[in-house]
Amino acid sequence: MKFWSEFKEFAVKGNMLDMAVGIIIGAAFSKIVNSLVKFVLTPPLSFLTNGVHLESLQWILRPAKTDGSGEVVKEALIIQYGMFLQAAIDFLIIAMTIFILIKMINRIRLKSEDTEDKTVPTPKDIQLLTEIRNLMQEQTNKQSDTPSERS
């Protein structure tokens, strides 16, 4: 019984739900980036390489051997370096896209946390923390202004 109550507490906690939302958004974002790479960036790259698709680049170490009827007796030995190049380019584009997205989010977050900037409304928690900080600074200043009694 204790196991189920612990599991229920774990599954219903905010962290678990946040993680689930993050995974779902990550999967959707992955589709967006994959379509960006496949349908927007790869065609111009293929055009620049005179119609050569990176995925089709390969190095044949040993061609396939067939018998008289055309049946493959021995499979070809092929290094498909084009698949590696395409995966590396995909990784770089995805990493750059995520970097730019996180940079934009951080800029927006920092701007929203700036209590001096009046163009963006300050979140309530930040506003309260700022007020508490200001009150504490005022109290510290008042204590340092009054002469302390020494015995």
UniProtKB/TrEMBL annotation:
Q: Which PROSITE patterns match?
A: MSCL
**InterPro entries, per the entry:** Mechanosensitive_channel_CS, MS_channel, MSC/AndL, MscL_channel
Give an example GO cellular component term for this record: plasma membrane
Q: How does it sit in the membrane?
A: Multi-pass membrane protein
What is any Pfam family matched here? MscL
Which keywords has UniProt assigned to this entry? Cell membrane, Ion channel, Ion transport, Membrane, Transmembrane, Transmembrane helix, Transport
Does the record's keyword annotation contain Lipoprotein?
no
What are this entry's molecular-function GO terms? mechanosensitive monoatomic ion channel activity
Membrane-spanning residues where?
A: 20-41, 78-102
Spell out the subcellular localization from the entry.
Cell membrane
**Superkingdom to which the source organism belongs:** Bacteria
The family database entries (PANTHER family) matched by this protein are listed as: LARGE-CONDUCTANCE MECHANOSENSITIVE CHANNEL, MECHANOSENSITIVE CHANNEL MSCL
Q: What is known about its subunit structure?
A: Homopentamer.
Task performed by this protein: Channel that opens in response to stretch forces in the membrane lipid bilayer. May participate in the regulation of osmotic pressure changes within the cell.
- Annotated family: Belongs to the MscL family.
Q: What is this protein called?
A: Large-conductance mechanosensitive channel
- Species, as recorded: Membranihabitans marinus
The gene designation is: mscL
